[in-house]
Specification:
Blueprint: E1 2-8, E2 11-13, E3 17-21, H1 26-29, E4 32-38, E5 41-43, E6 48-52, E7 60-65, E8 68-72, E9 78-82, H2 85-91, H3 93-96, E10 114-117, E11 124-125, E12 130-141, E13 146-154, E14 166-170, E15 175-179, E16 186-193, E17 198-216, E18 219-223, E19 229-232, E20 236-242, E21 249-254, E22 261-266, E23 272-279, E24 282-287, E25 293-300, E26 309-315, E27 320-322, E28 327-330
Parallel strand pairs: 1-4, 2-5, 3-6, 4-7, 5-8
Antiparallel strand pairs: 8-9, 10-28, 11-17, 12-17, 12-18, 13-16, 13-17, 14-15, 14-17, 18-27, 19-26, 20-25, 21-24, 21-26, 22-23, 22-25
């Protein structure tokens, strides 16, 4: 449901962050509406002035009017910076940037996907990428058989992982199974009987915990068709497929001043086309047109301190992040 929040004639002094508004992935909250900040003063923030959750295509919009940042220089002089259009573009690129208005490709015709599996039926190690809070994996059953997966869940902070069951559905949303997921940290073995050849979704609700899928005996990918993926403190690679005749590819990463990110993007020829260290907000790489084929993303540890939560997204193509280059599908 839409909401409206208005802050007028407010002053924040000496806080770690002067103003923060965070909401989780749209999969959970579906937050929409408008936040207005008018004639406010953010004075001597210790880390950052404003931290706003802003996802690509977000229904929640921000409007900051006649507001200012007040800092003190080395000799004690007060300096005022007005929050203007340029400042807003840095703060809210997803709201301001035309590249990020590309529609998401969510209506996938799974019957037309071509699966490439170099080791059908074998248990394969996956890149150890840790997701947080929520995640959807797409898996492919090459026949009516039982599929097997191994992973690990770990708590983040003080809260223990809640142990929510993993919902398995077909591509039409019909429930296939609910997999028991023990509460607390530890290794997990998951399996379900696929009733027929085809694609299935595994939906994880992790609370504040993190989960790493380690092995699978079937083709598997993270599904980012509907939303960006929330990762936490992990390094490694994933891959995505760019179809022929794609006009525009927009790759995105997001960190924050306190929790930075570092990523590299390589085209199908293996050439590095973009790399950025110490990412502190949404940053993008645009290829127009991109080379068709299998692209690689390398997640690295930032050179500056602070490496925990970050997000990754892609626009202009169907959003599937493959966890091994040996098992992919093309379209």
């Amino acid at each position: 449901e839409p909401i409206d929040l208005r802050f007028e004639n407010c002053t924040a002094v000496g806080d770690k962050t002067s103003f923060a508004f965070n909401h989780q992935s749209r999969r959970a909250t579906r937050v929409g509406g408008r936040v207005v900040i008018e004639n406010c003063s953010f004075e001597t923030p210790r880390l950052q002035t404003v931290e706003l959750s802003n996802f690509v295509g977000d229904a929640l919009k921000y409007d900051i009017r006649n507001s200012r940042i007040v800092t003190t220089n080395a000799i004690g002089e007060r300096q005022t910076t007005w929050i203007d259009e340029t400042w807003m573009k840095r703060l809210l690129p997803c709201q301001q940037d035309a590249d990020l208005q590309l529609p998401r490709l969510t209506n996938i015709d799974f019957s037309r996907l071509c699966v490439r599996d170099a080791k059908p039926g074998e248990v394969v190690k996956l890149q150890p990428l840790s997701i947080r809070e929520q995640g959807v994996y797409i898996v492919y059953a090459d026949s009516a058989r039982t599929l097997h997966f191994e992973g690990a869940v770990r708590k983040v902070g003080k809260r223990e992982p809640p142990g929510n069951p993993v919902l398995v559905t077909d591509t039409e949303g019909r429930e296939v199974a609910r997999l028991a997921f023990k509460k607390g940290s530890g290794d997990r073995t998951l399996s379900f009987a696929a009733p027929a050849k085809g694609f299935y979704r595994l939906q994880f609700e992790l609370g504040t915990a993190r989960f790493t899928m380690k092995t699978a005996d079937a083709s598997i990918a993270l599904d980012v068709t509907a939303d960006s993926q929330h990762f936490i403190a992990c390094t490694g690679s994933f891959w995505f497929w760019v179809p022929e005749e794609t006009e525009r590819l927009v790759f995105l990463m997001n960190g924050s001043p306190g929790e930075k990110a570092h990523g590299e993007l390589r085209n199908p020829a293996g050439a590095s086309v973009w790399e950025e260290d110490n990412i502190k907000g949404w940053t993008k790489s645009v290829c127009a047109p991109p080379q068709a084929g299998l692209w690689q993303v390398i997640l690295k540890r930032p050179s500056e301190k602070g490496f925990e939560d970050f997000r990754v997204d892609v626009l202009g193509i169907p959003g599937f992040f493959f966890l091994t280059p040996d098992r992919i599908w093309t379209f």
